[in-house]
Amino acid sequence: MFAYQGKIELDLEPEKNKNIILIGARNGRGKTSLLRIIRILIHGLKENVEFTIQDVKLKPNDYALGNKQWEGIFHKGFNVDTASVKGILEFDGKELTIERSFEQTRSSFDEKLIVKFNSKKEIDPQSFLNNIIPKDFAQFFFFDGEKLESIMNTNDLEIKKSLEVLLNIKTYEKLIDKIKESKRKYKKEVQFTKGEKEIERLKIDLEGCKKDTEINEEKIEKINKEIYEIEQDIKDIDEQNINILVNKKADIKPIQDRKNQIEKELVKLKLTISEKVKTTELLVLMIETLSKTYLNKLEDDSVNYQLDEQLKLFKRTLNSIISKVQNNIFDADIENIPFEYNLDFDTTEFYQQRIKNEADKAWGDFTKSKQKNIEKQVIYYNDENKVYLKNIFESKVAIYDKITLLKSLEEELIVINEKFDNETNYASKNDFIIEQKQEKKLNLENEKSLKIEKRIELKLENERQSHINRTLDLDIRKLEAKLSLSKPIINAQNLSDRLIDFFEIFKYQLLNKKVENLENEFNKYIVELAHDEKWIKYVKINKNFEIKIIDFLEREMSLNSLSAGQRQILATALIQALGSVSQVKSFVCIDTPLARIDKENRKTIISNYYPNASKQIIILATNSEIDPLKEEYIEMKKFIAKEYTIVSNEYKSFFEDGYFQKSNKG
Amino acid sequence: MLKIPKEDKELLLQLIEEKELPKELIFKLVAKAVKYRYETRPIGFQGDVSDLIKEYANQKKDLN
Fold it and tell me: How does A647-656 read in b/e, with b if 16+ C-beta sit within 10 Å?
């Protein structure tokens, strides 16, 4: 690689109390190439943009393959297309092996890296190395002394991040990230589990539903009472109406009864009369009439001569009677017999025949005994009929009695009917009251129906509420069960929050403390390294790692106002301070370390800085910087573990033991 | 357990007392962080942290 060709092994291991590896070389022999190789070993080329050639930043491809001004990493003299470097280091008390190789392709290059830590091959080797020595922080460990002052510019964001790695802040940041990731994981696990708040909300809903149900139950109870009261009112109305009706009946009944009785009696009486009339009465009536007329005539007819006339009259009378009978004409008394008792034609005809017969018989008898004592004769002529006539007369009396009774009953019926009508009118008044009450009852029934409807509605509502209650209750129980299962996760989630809070505060406090330590160390090393202390009083570093230089007049000084030597001393002090407070104790490699340091300060740096800078410090120097014959070298010698000199021929550079042991070498 | 830097430890103890968090858990977490500090994608770190938090969140009695 670069000017080196073939396999070159270099032992750079320090010894007890001897931490310096001094490598000398004249300009152009490969000193800076060695520093570059160390940086390439740690951070590679592919993702590195920090390589500069003559203050020009090169892209990795240009840097590796070279351009007009730059030869690249592959040795041009031997026309090789591969290059590699391997470092065996000690880290955290364990062996760290880094092996990096490059192979040129047509227009680019391939880069391979193998890192083994404690014999275990790292999966992501570059990241592993970056975590030990951040890429942007390489300049603090492997640097060109001539450009050391540039590291004082710490306002870069990447530098800030790198400082956080070195000060172990990044460790806690990573831990915070992991806790946050855990929290996200917990949250994801329980994201579908509604928490206590949701259960509380559902419980409130459930309580609301229960309360609604209770209110409805109360309403239903109230409605039930109202319905009961309405029913009672209806019952009362019914009872009142019944009473009215009963009373009405009580008033009318005797009249009605009497009326019915009379009517029945009348029917019966009429039937009796009818029957009697049908059987005997008509005949009786006719005979009676006939007999009366006949007797009357006989009484008046004391003279026989008159008999013929009388008989003629008798005949006429009989004929008249017959005629009357035939025409259904009765005498005045008989006419009072209701029409329905009139005889029909057949009956009339029967009686007509009978009367005829009787009349004929009477005429026959009369003609046979034309004697004077006709009265007797006539009277006794009907002797056998005397009893019959007597019975007939009695019957006639009885019929007349019955007819009289009938008339009396009919009169009574008229009276009763009038009374009945009066009572009925009175009852009608009650009917109006009943009607009113019925109307009221109807209203009450309607009211009751409405209330029943309302009750049904409320009951349905309660059924619905009950269903909701059951659903809510079930949901709550399910949620509680889920919550119970997720409780450990939720606990972990809550603890994560507290831990994140804890480590954020811790990180902040630690950063402040480390920055404060860095500042203190920085100031301490400035005092140790600066030969002339008058140019600077102290430096201040804030948590963003911004460095402010304060002079003895408490004024902030610009870095540009300092000399190159002063800037280099500051940078050295910063590197030393960083080495002191850093968790990573890296080896240090310095190219051209004292180029810009004046004589007085050189001594201080050699005696104060180099022995304490690191457990291993590789110094790449020219003999003009550190002359092997002069005081600086002698001062340093007691801390030097190994010495080499880079020499070169026309083909390649290589190492020889010893520091410029042959003055004309190189 | 890997060594926790002294000044980190002092600060941790001070904050543990203030925040009333389980000391054992904090130091176990920090030890894990120190163990994996150089690894970009450390295998097991996430799981270890999650398990530790879950364990202490649900078992340890010194948690508030």
Answer: bbeeebbbbb
Determine contact: A211 vs chain B, CB below 8 A.
Answer: no
Between CA A564 and CA A567 the distance in angstroms is: 5
Find where tokens 């590291």 sit: A151
| Residue A147 or B61, more confident | A147
- Of A149-153, A387-391, A512-516, minimum mean pLDDT range: A387-391
pLDDT-based confidence at A296, cuts 50/70/90? Answer: low
Residue B58 at interface with chain A, using a CB cutoff of 8 Å:
yes
Single out the residue of A559, A508, A574 nearest to residue A140, CA to CA.
A574
Cα four-point dihedral sign A587, A590, A596, A601: positive
CB within 8 Å of B50: residues ≥ 6 apart:
A181, A182, A185, A186, A492
Helix, strand, or coil (residue A536): coil
Q: Residue A495 and residue B33: Cβ atoms within 8 Å?
A: no
CA-based nearest residue to A619, from A653, A660, A648, A649? A660
Asked if A179's CB is within 8 angstroms of B29's CB, the reply is: yes
Cβ neighbours of residue A396 closer than 8 Å, sequence gap 6 or more: A281, A284, A285, A288
Domain boundaries of chain B, sorted by first residue: 6-58
Determine contact: A185 vs chain B, CB below 8 A. yes
> What are φ and ψ of residue B47, in 5° steps?
-60, -40
Relative to beta strand A640-648, strand A20-25 is: parallel
Kindly report the nearest CA distance between residue A28 and chain B, in angstroms: 37
Residue A119 gets the label, from left (phi > 0), alpha (psi -120 to 50) or beta, of left
Q: What is the pLDDT of residues B11-50, one digit of tens each?
A: 999 999 998 899 999 999 998 888 888 777 778 899 999 9
A502 with B21: Cβ contact below 8 A:
yes
Which positions in chain A touch B39 (Cβ < 8 Å)?
Answer: 122, 124, 127-128, 131
In order, the DSSP letters of A215-265 are HHHHHHHHHHHHHHHHHHHHHHHHHHHHHHHHHHHHHHHHHHHHHHHHHHH
Q: Which whole-number Å values give the CA distances from A532 to A535, A568, A605, in the listed order?
A: 7, 14, 13
Domain ranges (residues) in chain A:
20-166+530-657, 224-450
Is B23:A525 a contact under the CB 8 Å cutoff?
no
| Cα distance between residue B41 and residue A124, in whole Å | 8
Tokens matching residue B4: 């926790």
Q: Does A177 touch chain B (CB under 8 A)?
A: no
Backbone angles phi, psi at B26, to 5 degrees: -60, -45
Across the interface, whether the CB atoms of A168 and B37 are under 8 A apart is answered yes
Number of residues that this document lists for chain A: 666
Residues 6+ apart with CB under 8 A from A666: A25, A26, A29, A645, A646, A647, A648
Cα A570 off chain centre by? 67
Place A112 in a pLDDT band, splitting at 50, 70 and 90. very high
Q: What is the CATH number of domain A20-166+530-657?
A: 3.40.50.300
> Which tokens go with A272?
């009796």
- Taking 80 as the threshold, does the pLDDT of residue A660 lie above it? yes
Instruction: Say whether residue A492 is in contact with chain B using an 8 A CB cutoff.
Output: yes
Mean local confidence (pLDDT), A325-354: 44
Instruction: Please give the full DSSP string across B1-63, using - where no structure is assigned.
Output: -PPPPHHHHHHHHHHHHHHT--HHHHHHHHHHHHHTTT-SS-TTHHHHHHHHHHHHHHT-TT-
